[in-house]
Amino acid sequence: MIKKKYNQCYDVSEKNKTYLQTSIKRSKGIFPEMEVAKAHMKILKKYIKKDDAILDAGCLTGHFYRSFLREFKNHNLKYTGIDPWALHINEAKKIWSKDKNVNFKKGWVQKLPFKNNSFDISICSNVLTHIPSIEDPIKELLRVTRKIILIRTPIHKISYRIQMVFNSKWFKFTNVHPKDEFDKKGNPRAFEYFDVHSKDYFESLVKKYEKRARIKFIKDNFYNKKNINLKIEKKQKILSTRVNSEGDQVADLLIIPNHFVLIKK
Q1: Cα(193)–Cα(130) distance, rounded to whole angstroms?
Q2: In angstroms, what CA-CA distances link 103 with 33, 94, 131, 232?
Q3: How far is Cα 215 from Cα 68, in angstroms, rounded to an integer?
Q4: Which CATH architecture has domain 4-159+195-264?
Q5: Which terminal CB of the chain, N or C, has fewer other CB atoms within 10 Å?
Q6: Residues 134-183: pLDDT tens digits?
Q7: Contact at 8 Å (CB) between 104 and 61?
Q8: Interval 49-78: pLDDT, tens
Q9: Degrees (nearest 5) of the Cα angle 219, 124, 265?
Q10: In terms of Cα–Cα distance, which of 192, 164, 255 is closest to 10?
């Protein structure tokens, strides 16, 4: 029986220690800063003020905080990271234990355990694409944020529902054998969403809960192709992002139209 919450499979992340080790090395500065983290800092540079409270929804072990420290080292930022997986949160607390401005909590972006307007800035990077219903996450991010929300996720003119189906032959963190990938109704047993949402749909959700919100869609062209193609995550080649000859970001067979969605309240 595959454990699920919000129709997300625990097999994907709960025991994925390969992904965990990658995150740990990024947080410790052993692996280089991610291109997406650099891009966040470039976009947020004009909005962040001293003593701002930052929320990182889907923080893993807090490697984005290292980028905040680099870009805003004299700003005394108060950083809070939230992630649904205990293995990431436990390691994050160890890595950043000596930093008084850091706080980590286990939880889901669908139901954030914070009061209204708790944060000046909220970020949510590479998370919504893996969530089957993004309405609650958007509602929650709007609820807990005072000023700016920056979301990175695939955006296109048309929405697509995409599932990557796992089996134990190539993904060691599931016990689903190839012959059992799908049940008798044709539903995958262990999977991860890689959804693409239309600009119109995304904007309608934001406006539903914050009519006055100003929304800007920014195509992710910030990356350095050479850095992305370094293939640090050699053991996860199927899941790693690369850049093809036409400059598109690709994961296995999927061309991913990543955008930053900047929301101003």
Answers
A1: 4
A2: 21, 11, 24, 28
A3: 23
A4: 3-Layer(aba) Sandwich (3.40)
A5: N
A6: 999 999 999 999 999 999 999 999 999 999 999 999 998 899 999 999 99
A7: no
A8: 999 999 999 999 999 999 999 999 999 999
A9: 80
A10: 192
22-54 as b/e, with b when 16 or more CB fall inside 10 Å?
Answer: bbbebbeeebebbbbbbbbbebbeeebeeebbb
Q: Which amino acid is at 264?
A: K
Burial-class residue 18 by CB neighbours within 10 Å (0-12, 13-18, 19+). middle
Instruction: Give the DSSP letter string of 145-176.
Output: EEEEEEEEEEEESS-B--EEEP-TTT-TT---
Query: DSSP of 210-243, one letter per residue?
Result: -TT-EEEEEE-----HHHHTT---GGGTTT-EEE
Query: Hey, where are the domains in the chain?
Result: 4-159+195-264
Structure tokens at 255: 């061309």
| Dihedral pair phi/psi, residue 113, rounded to 5° | -85, 50
Structure tokens at 135: 């309405």
- Look up residue 202 and give its two tokens: 């995304």
List the beta bridge partners of residue 103: 80
Contacts of 234 (CB under 8 A, 6+ apart): none
**Distance separating alpha carbons of residues 197 and 203, to the nearest angstrom:** 10
What amino acid occupies position 195? D
Residue 19's CB: how many other CB atoms inside 10 A? 20
- Rounded CA separation 56/39 (Å): 15
Radius of gyration of the chain (CA): 18
Q: 9: which 2 tokens?
A: 């499979």
The identity of residue 204, as a single letter, is: S
